[in-house]
Amino acid sequence: MAPNQQQRNRKWHPGMTAAIAAVGSLATISPEFALAFTPVQELIITRQCIGCDLQAAILQGLDLSEVNLQRADLRNANLRDTAFFRADLRWAQLEGADLTQARLSDADARESSGQGADFTGARLTQAQFSDSDFSGANFTSIIGTESNFQGAILTEAQFVEASLVRATLGNVVLTGADLQGSDLYGANLIRADLSEANLQGVNLVNARLIRVTLQNTDLTDAVLINANVVGTDLEAATLCRTIMPDGTENNTDCP
Question: Considering only Cβ atoms within 10 Å of each terminal Cβ, which end of the chain, N or C, has fewer?
């Protein structure tokens, strides 16, 4: 293939121009000199940066689809509107990171951590967050259809008006979390701990609420039609204008 044709066919990623300007043309970089890449340059050029220190890095708006960021330190990084489609974020540190409007569909973030991270408006369709710790994180208005948070710690996390249709939330810890107005249609919440959580106006139609802890959980205006509540004590929750699994309205705790 002619050199010009090769250049036209080369897949270009946002941010590569700046990175290559800093270190010279890829065609002239020696293996020894490649060791001088900064972590950001290494990530953009090689599409992987395993265990890299990317604290407070500015990666806003980049296309980082399918990159390998296993064990990367992304604390306080600016990841707003960044594309992480099918990215590998296992064991990554995301504490305080800004992922507002980020796109993480099919991303793998199992066993990652991100206390206080901001995912407002992010897309997490079929993303994997099992066994992760995102206590206090903000997931307001996310689209998390069929996402997997199995066994995750989400204490006091914000899921206001989040879409979690058919999401897997089994064995999650959501104590003190705010899920007001969220859509959990068909979600799997088996053995989840929702103590002290705010579930006002939540859609739980066809959800699996088997052996769920609902101590002092607020289910005001929640809809549980056809939900499976075997082994769950609904009376431990606040029930007001709550539509029960059989379609009846429960006003036991209304003022």
Answer: C
Residue-wise pLDDT tens digits, 77-112: 999 999 999 999 999 999 999 999 999 999 999 999
pTM (two decimals)? 0.85
Three-class secondary structure of residue 115 per DSSP: coil
pLDDT tens-digit readout, 35-84 = 568 899 999 899 999 999 999 999 999 999 999 999 999 999 999 999 99
Closest CA to 1 of 208, 166, 9, 132: 9
CA-to-CA distance for 143 and 208, rounded, in angstroms? 20
For residue 93, the cross-strand partners are 73, 113
pLDDT tens per residue, range 5-17: 444 443 444 444 4
Burial of 55 (0-12, 13-18, 19+ CB in 10 A): middle
Q: Which of 194, 189, 188 is nearest to 157 (CA)?
A: 194
pLDDT on residue 6: 42
Closest CA to 180 of 226, 146, 222: 222
- Express the helix, strand and coil content of the chain in percent, nearest 5 each: 15, 15, 70
**CA 117 to CA 78: how far, in whole Å?**
11
Give the position of tokens 């075997």: 230
Distances (CA, A) of 55 to 79, 92, 93, 126: 11, 11, 9, 26
The model's pLDDT over 237-254, given as tens digits with 9 standing for 90+, comes to 999 999 999 999 999 999
Nearest to 127 by CA among 160, 156, 94: 94
For residues 183-200, give the mean pLDDT.
Answer: 98
